[in-house]
Design brief:
CATH architecture: 2-Layer Sandwich
Distance between the termini: 39 Å
CATH class: Alpha Beta
Number of strands: 12
Structural class: alpha+beta
Order of helices and strands: HEEEEHEEHEEEEHEEH
Helix content: 25-40%
Largest sheet: 6 strands, mixed
Shape: elongated
Number of helices: 5
Radius of gyration: 19 Å
CATH superfamily: GHMP Kinase, N-terminal domain
Length: 261
């Protein structure tokens, strides 16, 4: 980002002014759409203002890992396509792409929202592998929070492929069996700019931050995962304020998940 633009954004934030007119602790309008990818077992399109991301769920019966013969497998992938932002480049996954996938994956995994043993059909032989692909269509910041919500909605609406009596899978057909989510881990990223804390940053705002903390919150306000980003220092007081703010924002985002289901 141009240095002058960066300073302009930071100076405006000090005055409580954001490019889109929001307050510092206000998230953008959230819109949720489900079931629009016919080739996926479950899908979701999430919009935060003009920012847009899609998530798709694919399932396959595969052999489990040797050390977890009774557990299904979860994989989360993220790809930052140049069509969504001119700053993204084609090629191997970037550090930002890998971090996005890992933080979302960690929230789902550490919350134990998926009963992986329920994904086992034959111990040591056949378990369901659930892959979640997250792709921004129009990138304008806050991909972890948007992608985390999209992943949950896509999982909640997913239906398993039909398994025939002989054990073969008809991947082009959907059964009535759905994925059971035992918890709803909502990631909320709080950003520090100078002495200020902001939520749901746009792309321009992300380029001005000193540090950020993604806090994954459950329904009972317990925290199941944390991820710090940026080179800036976070004090204990900063973290306490960030946690309180994340709990508040997670409840607001969770309402959108409930409305979508």
């Amino acid at each position: 980002m141009n240095r002058n633009i960066r300073e302009h954004v930071r100076n405006n934030l000090k005055k409580g002014i954001r490019p889109d007119g929001r307050k510092l602790h206000e998230i953008r309008e959230i819109k949720v759409e489900t079931g629009f990818l016919s080739t996926a077992e479950g899908s979701a399109r999430i919009k935060f203002g003009d920012a847009e991301v899609i998530a798709g769920v694919k399932m396959a019966l595969e052999k489990p890992y040797a050390d977890t013969p009774e557990d299904g497998v979860l994989m989360v992938n993220s790809e930052l396509l140049p069509l969504s932002n001119p700053d993204f480049e084609s090629g191997p996954p970037s550090a930002a792409s890998i971090e996005t996938a890992r933080v979302i994956d960690r929230g789902i995994r550490e919350s134990k929202t998926l009963d992986t043993k329920s994904l086992c059909l034959v111990k040591g032989e056949k378990v369901w592998t659930i892959a979640i692909d997250i792709v921004p269509i129009n990138y304008d910041g806050n991909l972890i929070d948007m992608g985390g919500l999209a992943a949950l909605v896509a999982l909640k609406t997913a239906r398993f492929p039909v398994v025939k009596e002989d054990g073969t899978v008809e991947y082009h057909k959907r059964s009535d069996k759905k994925v059971t989510l035992r918890r709803l881990p909502i990631p909320v990223t709080i950003c520090k700019v100078g002495d200020l804390l902001i939520v749901d940053p746009t792309d321009d705002e992300e380029n001005t931050i000193d540090a950020r903390l993604t806090i994954t919150v459950l329904e009972d306000n317990k925290i199941c995962a944390l991820q710090k980003g940026g080179d800036g220092v976070l004090t204990i007081d900063d973290i306490n304020k960030m946690v309180d703010l994340a709990i508040e924002i997670s409840a607001e985002i969770r309402k959108k998940f409930v409305e979508a289901n």
